[in-house]
Amino acid sequence: MADKYMAAAIEEAEKGYAEGGIPIGSVIVYKGEIIGRGHNRRVQKGSAILHGEMDALENAGRRAAHVYRESVLYTTLSPCSMCSGAILLYGIPRVVIAENKTFMGEEEFLRSRDVKVEVTDDAYCFSLMQKFIKEKPDLWNEDIGESDA
């Protein structure tokens, strides 16, 4: 059973899926309060960068630097290099990942920069991603940069 913050990230992933996008969601938590939530909206917005983590950061808005340095980012899928760079840029010290079997992001890079990374191995998130990939393999490959096109 996911905690309430991961449950909120999963809700975001489900929104993305319902909108015809990629089911990856994220929330940013500061002192027990969700200050930013988002989901992958590359398809919906025709965006090159709106991964779940980036959308959550965008929706958290402009904050004092210490807020991000005292926050936790929850995400349903292991963060890619772009999102990991943003995590480092904003100094987010802890990342909780629902699953990394579908895609192994830059977890070791984050750890090497003293970010605490936790993986919960959430079976629901894994099954949702597998369902999506089976339904829309071209879209998945486009998003993670493995398309032949």
Topology:
Blueprint: H1 4-18, E1 25-30, E2 33-39, H2 42-45, H3 52-60, H4 65-69, E3 71-75, H5 81-90, E4 94-97, H6 107-112, E5 116-119, H7 123-135, H8 137-144
Parallel strand pairs: 3-4, 4-5
Antiparallel strand pairs: 1-2, 1-3
Helix pairs in contact: 7-8
Brief rundown of the structure:
With 149 residues, the chain is an alpha/beta fold.
Task: Walk me through this protein's architecture.
The protein is built from 8 helices and 5 strands. The chain has a 5-stranded mixed sheet with strand order 2-1-3-4-5. It is globular and about 40 Å long. 47% of the residues lie in helices and 17% in strands. Helix 7 packs across helix 8. The chain is an alpha/beta fold and 149 residues long.
| Estimated radius of gyration | 14 Å
As laid out across the biggest beta sheet, the strand order is 2-1-3-4-5
- What helical percentage do the residues reach? 40-55%
Q: Mean pLDDT score, rounded?
A: 94
| SSE sequence, one letter per element | HEEHHHEHEHEHH
Count of helix runs: 8
How many strands, which pairing sense, and closed or not: the largest β-sheet? 5 strands, mixed
Molecular shape: globular
Euclidean distance between termini CA atoms? 39 Å
Question: Using DSSP, what is the number of strands?
Answer: 5
**What quaternary form is this?**
single chain
- Which segments are poorly predicted (pLDDT under 50) over 5 or more consecutive residues? none
The structure class reads: alpha/beta
Strand content: 15-25%
